[in-house]
Amino acid sequence: MKMRRIRKTLSIIFILIFVMISAGIAQVDDSNKNPDGTYSSKKYSEAEKPDDSYLAKFYAIDVVNNLLKKNLEQVYLIKVLVSNFKGKGWEEDYNKIYDGYK
């Protein structure tokens, strides 16, 4: 008798857990849904669509690395200018720029 009661309680618990999990999976956030049914944040026409080839990705990575290097050099240049002209009060501005770069 006691074993049946435990089985029944466990069955009810498992059913409740299953229902809660399946309700959570079925719930979809439609706030980002476009009118045509897609979830893309940007729509592109065929003329504006970015290239999705390996070569385009390779080129984009190269551009990003060059821009990172250029930005780092410019931040270092600003550091040199600030350290050479300490009386001008540029330390705060440099710290803001450096924190923004980080």
Instruction: Give the overall form.
Output: elongated
Q: Give the total of beta strands.
A: 0
Q: Mind telling me the C-alpha Rg?
A: 29 Å
Total number of domains: 1
Q: Report the major sheet.
A: none
Query: Helix fraction?
Result: 55-70%
End-to-end C-alpha gap: 67 Å
- Strand % is under 5%
Order of helices and strands: HHH
Number of helical elements: 3
Average residue pLDDT: 77
Poorly predicted segments: none
From the helix content, strand content and strand pairing, which structural class follows?
Answer: mainly alpha
Description:
By secondary structure, the chain is mainly α. It has helices at residues 2-26, 54-84, 91-101. The chain is built from three helices and no strands. The N and C termini lie far apart (67 Å). Helix content is 66%, strand content 0%. The chain has one domain (2-26, 51-101).
Describe how the helices and strands are arranged.
Layout: H1 2-26, H2 54-84, H3 91-101
Helix pairs in contact: 2-3
For the structure shown, list the relevant keywords:
mainly alpha; 66% helix
